[in-house]
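Deliverable D2.4 — example input (structure tokens):
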């Protein structure tokens, strides 16, 4: 069978392959195949091929030939980055937003000149990309230049993205050339070109380009180009790409992805005009946060601690012995008896993750009276909440989980309204469509609307 595209999602534990056809006319989602990821076995293509074989069996064909093959990856820790800027609340924050938006797992953040201890940490850390920022355009220069010298001198042979004062670009190039690292240097627009101005889109795309070019050098990923002949981007970045595409069609939205280990929130909204007027620092139009302590399996104990064991047992009507038995046999994919617990954990993960992602109103008392200002991302203008990921697409009471989480009240938090329309990624293909949108945006948008039930 000949089809238009296969899109693989290579996760830390599972590899999924989705098949699509008729991309130029009436796009169709054909189905999904699954396999354990084999990156730790030294060859990710083993798991990829097994997922393709599973897909062939499910759709009832003996042969499957795709014109184009794409992938997103979060295997082996995904895209691991460090970020080094000048002032934490300015250039460092801007660089972090660009890295998170690209789908990065940020392992280290520094501000100011790097010291010998930080340099040792960078040298020993398993990083895929290093980012240097610092200084508004035609402003402070020395910090970024000195940090560039120290990082280039390490000769780590991994991509380094410079996204600081554009006046430094020629100097930075000459530094990396001196240390034989010029092939690894990527120059971007400044992520913080003026005071209170964030411009992260160019850098976000450049990070994904660098990831795609160098991911094949990661352990176990060397043979990935044997099967994948088109784009490879980080899976969280792919979800944000899909969210940005969808916002252009339906308006302000937030996407929630609750997994076994983490909860990701992606928002694409400018917020309300009245909030923007009192915002004390800029926020990106498209923002991602990842909560590494909120997961319904690996990090379930963190969520249980937030809720409280006694309260949780009372809510679920569990005796002490029933609670112990459930904890002893709790599974990544819950059985019918464990589903109520997983649903309650997912609800709390969503409440906490939204509360951390959104901004807040702050009251300040001065000699002239009380003044209210806003800080962080304003979600109060969001019209749609998109649910993706295993928990929010597969649990039976997913809409109740979301609605209960949205009903949580805190008048100081800039949360989505309780009336927000809920859309569920029923086919669980949002990440795949984010990758596909790089080359086929119209088809990706149509397929996404189909999965979300938008007519």
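Example output (designed residues):
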């Amino acid at each position: 069978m000949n089809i238009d595209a296969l899109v693989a999602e290579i996760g830390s534990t599972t590899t999924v392959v989705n098949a699509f056809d008729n991309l130029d006319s009436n796009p169709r989602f054909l189905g999904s195949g699954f396999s354990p990821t084999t990156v730790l076995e030294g060859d990710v293509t083993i798991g990829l091929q097994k997922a393709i074989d599973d897909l062939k069996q499910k759709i009832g064909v003996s042969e499957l030939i795709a014109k184009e093959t794409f992938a997103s990856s979060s295997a082996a820790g995904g895209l691991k980055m460090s970020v080094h800027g000048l002032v934490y609340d300015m250039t460092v924050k801007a660089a972090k937003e660009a890295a998170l938006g690209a789908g990065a797992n940020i392992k280290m953040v520094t501000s100011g000149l790097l010291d010998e201890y930080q340099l040792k940490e960078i040298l020993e850390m398993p990083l895929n990309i290093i980012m240097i920022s610092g200084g508004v355009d035609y402003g402070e220069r020395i910090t970024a230049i000195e940090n560039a010298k120290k990082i280039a001198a390490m000769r780590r042979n991994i991509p380094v993205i410079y996204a600081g004062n554009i006046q430094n670009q020629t100097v930075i190039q000459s530094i990396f050339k001196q240390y034989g690292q010029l092939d690894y240097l990527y120059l971007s627009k400044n992520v913080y070109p003026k005071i209170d101005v964030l411009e992260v889109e160019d850098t976000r795309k450049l990070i994904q380009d660098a990831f795609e070019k160098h991911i094949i050098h990661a352990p176990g990923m060397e043979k990935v180009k044997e099967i994948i002949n088109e784009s490879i981007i980080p899976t969280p970045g792919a979800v944000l790409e899909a969210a940005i595409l969808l916002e252009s069609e339906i308006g302000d939205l937030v996407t929630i992805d609750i997994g076994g280990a983490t909860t990701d929130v992606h928002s694409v909204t400018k917020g309300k005009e009245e909030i923007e007027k009192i915002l004390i620092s800029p926020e990106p139009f498209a923002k991602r946060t990842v909560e590494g302590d909120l997961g319904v399996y690996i990090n379930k104990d963190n969520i249980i601690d937030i809720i409280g064991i006694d309260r949780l047992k009372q809510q679920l009507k569990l005796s002490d012995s029933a609670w112990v038995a459930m904890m002893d046999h709790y599974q990544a994919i819950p059985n019918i008896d464990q589903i109520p617990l997983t649903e309650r954990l997912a609800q709390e993960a969503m409440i906490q993750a939204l509360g951390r992602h959104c901004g807040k109103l702050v009251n300040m008392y001065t000699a002239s009276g009380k003044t209210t200002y806003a800080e962080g991302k304003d979600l109060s203008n969001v019209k749609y909440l998109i649910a993706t990921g295993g928990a929010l697409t597969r649990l039976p009471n997913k809409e109740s989980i979301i609605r209960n989480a949205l009903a949580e009240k805190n008048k100081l938090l800039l949360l989505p309204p309780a009336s927000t329309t809920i859309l569920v990624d029923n086919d669980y293909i949002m990440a795949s469509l984010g990758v596909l949108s790089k080359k086929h945006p119209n088809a990706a948008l149509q397929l996404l609307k189909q999965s979300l039930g938008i007519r």
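The two ends are 29 Å apart (CA to CA).
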